[in-house]
Design brief:
The chain is mostly beta strands and 297 residues long. The protein has 3 helices and 15 strands. It has a single domain, classed as Roll (Lipovitellin-phosvitin complex, beta-sheet shell regions).
Length: 297
Amino acid sequence: MIKGKAGAIAVFVVFSLTSTGWVHQSEAASVKLRYGFKPGAVYRVTEQDHNVSKTVTEMDVMGQLQRFESPSDQVSSGTWSARAVGKVKDGVKLQVEYGQRKGGERWSAGKVDAGSIFGKSSAEVIIHPVKGVMEIKSLPAGDQIIDIIYQGRFAWMPKLPEKEIKVGGGFTHEYVLNSGMYHVKSTDEYYLVEVKSGFAIFDVETKTVAVIRMSQAPTPEGMPSGVAMNMGDMKMAYKGSGTAVFDMKEGIFVEREGKMSYSNMDTTEGSSPLPGGMSFSSRMEGVTKYQFEMERE
């Protein structure tokens, strides 16, 4: 079992040894990965993100071009917990809580406490030993923001290979997050680089395309009614690399960290002319560093 700071230090030491080249031999030539969430156990996850970006917006109002640049540097962090309430036919059912409940999630972005913004909600998640996330059902149902939050909470738990994999080998995980105005398609390539002290350590390469359907977005405050409905989709491309650490005894990924660069956001494709002869375009580029850690309490 990995608990608290001791667990985080153990994972860090294992990763540091492998990344600096001090450890050259694995304890096993191959490993078989299986999720092993234990009924009755509570799992706590901590997340951290550091996003540095720049948005460039151009507006043509009656032939007059206006250009705006908006830099952004945001750090966010949060914790959430999931209780394995019991076994089901396809695996283990997890009960997840979000918001201000005792033992639920707290999330902050700068000085904003998003736990008070999103209020209270919960979800049921079915985890298969090999296939990973089989089903996510958020409550209350039908809230697009809550749906995408919960889908994102488990996006880093990939479908595992059926057979053993050797050091130097790997597997591919593809997944889609889809909730109303959001559509995200991502491909993760996992490469096993080390097996040591009960941990399987992977390099991870990621490619993602995200689409935000502006036709389903609410009209921003201060904008004339109906303007947002005329905008095209926002399309963004992400590419990054990182590491993932799988605890073979616990049957969970205890760490995932990395860096993603993104760009190519465009709201002009498929958009209609805006009222008053206006046209609008926006593009963004940036880098996000992220880290997830999971432990069984």
